Amino acid sequence: MGAKSCIIIFFFMVLATSSPSTGRKKQYKSCKELLLYFHDVIYNGKNKENATSAIVAAPEGANLTILAGNFHFGNIAVFDDPITLDNNFHSKPVGRAQGMYIYDTKNTYTSWLGFTFVLNSTDYQGTINFIGADPIMIKTRDISVVGGTGDFFMHRGVATLMTDAFEGDVYFRLRVDIKFYECW
């Protein structure tokens, strides 16, 4: 066996032993974290002064002031909700959650979300953009953070949502635990 063959064999042995597979997923460390709450008051025909969201599309024959039966399938709502640092609806807002949710499943409560947090406080200036499916009946669920502006320029990560409170079909509060894994 020549010197060249020995070097090649040695090279492959080093490769085979230098990267053992542990079977574990890589753990990522977040570069920034935020915990915020957004409060949604759905317009029901009687609460226009307090409403922060409204049904803008519904199945044929449905009422735009009452969520459709059948898991609200086919309803589309737009919102401009206050964002607070705690779970108190009357706390000073640090920004607005603006976007839409679409009830898109016939056999369970699930929605598709597309929205932006517009933050304008002494601590944070800018926007954070979210998109993804929201299986509402699951206690905690993740949606994608796909970008931002200002203090959140080009940030990406994951937001863990939890329905913190709800009152029938009129009010709900989401706890939004944001972890950014790309920060510029």
TrEMBL record:
Residues annotated as signal peptide: 1-18
Compartments where found: Secreted, Extracellular space, Apoplast
Assigned GO CC terms: apoplast
Keywords of the record: Apoplast, Secreted, Signal
GO biological process terms held by the UniProt record: phenylpropanoid biosynthetic process
Database matches in InterPro entries: Allene_oxi_cyc_Dirigent, Dirigent
Gene3D superfamilies to which the protein is assigned, alphabetical: Allene oxide cyclase-like
Pfam families per UniProt: Dirigent
Superkingdom assignment: Eukaryota
Family listed: Belongs to the plant dirigent protein family.
Entry function: Dirigent proteins impart stereoselectivity on the phenoxy radical-coupling reaction, yielding optically active lignans from two molecules of coniferyl alcohol in the biosynthesis of lignans, flavonolignans, and alkaloids and thus plays a central role in plant secondary metabolism.
Subunit and interaction comment: Homodimer.
Name of the featured protein: Dirigent protein
Lineage: Eukaryota, Viridiplantae, Streptophyta, Embryophyta, Tracheophyta
